[in-house]
Amino acid sequence: MGYPTSTLPPDFIWGFATASYQIEGATNVDGRGPSIWDSFCKIPGKIADGSSGEVACASYNRAHEDIALLKECGAPAYRFSLSWSRIIPLGGRNDPVNEKGLQFYIKFVDDLLAAGITPMITLFHWDLPDELDKRYGGFLNKEEFVADFAHYARLVFNVLGSKVKHWITFNEPWCSSVLGYSTGSFAPGRTSDRSKSPIGNSATEPWIVGHNILIAHGTVVKIYRDEFKGEDGQIGITLNGDWAEPWDPENPADVEACTRRLEFAMSWFADPIYHGKYPDSMVKQLGNRLPTWEPEEIALVRNSNDFFGMNHYCTTYVRTKTSEPNLDDFEGNVDLLHENKAGKSIGPVTQSSWLRPYALGFRHLLKWLSERYGYPKIYVTENGTCVLGENDLPVEQILNDEFRVKYFDDYIHAMANAYTRDGVNVHAYMAWSLLDNFEWAEGYETRFGVTYVDYKNDQKRILKKSAKSIGPIFKNLIEKD
Ligand code: GBH
User: What is the pTM of this model?
Assistant: First the structure.
């Protein structure tokens, strides 16, 4: 007797994911206002190759090509994000609406639906209208930010709410908080490190920002549920989480440190939503630097997920630190390492220093969060890899991306094992990414796409081998009704 053959449920949807600033380009076209990423990219030294999203994949003008790619790959769904400043150039609730921006997304959704592709929309994937950062400090200003985000979301639900049934409020609030306000490596680049930024406080700001994003999420979920949800609409937040393995499995302190690390990365946001409070480990380490919940705030946040949105890429080894935590620590006082005590690497090296694939870690993570949060419905909203040195290879070799083919095969099967053997309630999977695109601080040197984008040749798109490798895996795994 072996294991049962792993499968995925009949209603499972899969597809590819992208984000507005990473693909659209046309940052100055048809009335779009600047976002914090437009400004951040202008600061010398912030982006590895000195680039920006000004042109990117030019998807604003090539939306029909992207839809054709999705069809060619047989993708039943597409996850993309809206550029807030394309819709409300200055961002605020009393600022003018840009009808052209709104119409662009309405047409795009109509075209997707006409092509038989289910849209999954992320309202916010990091490109905050720049004016809101300048006007009142963006996420740091709870009242203003929450009111402006709620206004923007309601405007979008009004025009797309009847057509789009899958909504994500925020993509990876951990990144907006920590990378934007602690390390300063992402826009708006605030940090205590004065060699990187004249403003910012890494000890306090990330925790305030995370708190305010959760309240904005809860507020918009309430609006959606009260006014737009209908019979079949769904809304949730997407969190990022890499799995953690102990550096020394024999050392109970390292085993414990893994849980702490997962709590600082994911439970920071998921515990308030599913348990109505911050994790004890964070309260203990951060003390009064972690904001406390007003009863009416936590009432909005608690139970605000129709599904658990999960972005997952890799696993790291975790080693506990023996010293007291620094004021700017955001990992839970641990070291993150690629090799364990025995010198074993967790997985192969890729182009991104943080990413080493380890598919079994995906299964472990899905099980861990299912146990902790009562087996919620999970949508995997991103999963994918870059390839070491890919950008420097001749095009023919880039197109033959066996490394990525294997990554998807391993990870999708690990997810099916989590469903079949661990009872994980997973119902969607979006591969990152449909296209090579603007990889934030790494610029264009790092490619995550299943489609090669020729940046020197009019953003021409050519499918890589991995693009067509995913469909057959799902065809095989998804149970027939
Ligand atoms: C996703 O984040 C994003 O949602 C997506 O936009 C992006 O293109 C994709 O990943 C690929 O990167 O270099 O030490 O500062 C994934 C989670 C968390 C991974 C932050 C990179 C930076 C680590 N990311 N992390 S470091």
Answer: 0.98
